[in-house]
């Protein structure tokens, strides 16, 4: 692969001979924390141009410059899978974003349901978690974490061709519906809040032709566990694990 | 079901007319935190006798007594699945124990591998996490969290009939081996430490006839994510989700 031990996400374009100026934070991390010096190699990705080997050509206290030397890997997009989830406690919401990135979701959409406690999210902080998870898991892509939207409004304009795998806690203990390879295409996974979906939401979801309800076993899973479990079921049959 | 809104794990035997003395901590939780009084209903389980409705008959500051009135559910054992994992950072180790309990592992076995950083675990603290997760997820069973043992020693005495689903990070990007329904019986899932397994460990595992290596997609999963994903794959085909 490459001699670079550190993977760094940057905003700038990456390409042959491209120089990449560093922010003060990035310079601090590379030169003070990780103690890299001139000539050291770093793996860069920006979510668009794949992964590049870059060399430190200037290292300063408040900045620095890297130079792209070779593309190590092309951009690899995840499957067209969204994760819709109702924000829960801070640590568990962070966790869901981290896990969705590792598991290969293409877009992370927080939704406000009738029983969602949290009415605000820090979108920028969650996006930073997705970047960090992408750095760690070796992905060349970073899913967008969208702004919180009401589930009602999202479903009112739901695209006809995008299926929804609905983690429906009312099915507790039912046989897990196995996904079929015949349903490839765009999908979303929908995980509810701790209080579950309201009766009105359940009625609405049950009537949508795009929706496949799924059971996740006989125990009540926390929302973060349910997200990872549903992503696994989907990825193993329809996604890039298959 | 029952009118009890609170589920509590207790050590004592549960049965018809059985009275259950509370510890000071349990009394504080029920009477001070949750503000229950005499006559209130609580759901009790002890991991052996199923779930019981019990009534508060004495409520004090440092103790109290509950009386079992009716069994609401019999004991439901999870499938015969162990989770073997190498302890990682404290919060993520706690998380693995919580998730393994929710997902229905029967036994949680921390293992010390050659690349495991942590040489000690607080077994009692982890067991308390399993109890808390069982209270939350509605399980009538609590998996034992065993003491940390070296992986080498565990494999040297490994039972011939217990299969191992080995989360092998060397298979990154390989097609996920789908488990077959023809392999029912005792299993264990083995998840490695952040540094992966050593060459010696990999050679040994590859030679064991009980071992099925499994790929978990093209991204590098953290150990806690890998544990939930592997438990999902197994439960959906061979476990009590199927």
TrEMBL record, chains A, B:
Record localization: Cytoplasm
Pfam families noted in UniProt: Methyltrans_RNA, PUA_4
Domain of life per record: Bacteria
BP-aspect Gene Ontology terms: rRNA base methylation
GO CC annotation terms, alphabetical: cytoplasm
EC code(s) of this entry: 2.1.1.193
Molecular function terms from GO: rRNA (uridine-N3-)-methyltransferase activity
SUPFAM superfamilies noted in UniProt: alpha/beta knot, PUA domain-like
Domain Ribosomal RNA small subunit methyltransferase E methyltransferase: 78-235
Keywords: Cytoplasm, Methyltransferase, rRNA processing, S-adenosyl-L-methionine, Transferase
Ribosomal RNA small subunit methyltransferase E PUA-like domain mapped to chain residues: 22-63
Catalytic activity: uridine(1498) in 16S rRNA + S-adenosyl-L-methionine = N(3)-methyluridine(1498) in 16S rRNA + S-adenosyl-L-homocysteine + H(+)
Protein biosynthesis found in the keyword field: no
Function: Specifically methylates the N3 position of the uracil ring of uridine 1498 (m3U1498) in 16S rRNA. Acts on the fully assembled 30S ribosomal subunit.
Family from the record: Belongs to the RNA methyltransferase RsmE family.
NCBIfam families hit by this protein: PRK11713.3-5, RsmE family RNA methyltransferase
Protein name, UniProt field: Ribosomal RNA small subunit methyltransferase E
Record organism: Gemmobacter fulvus
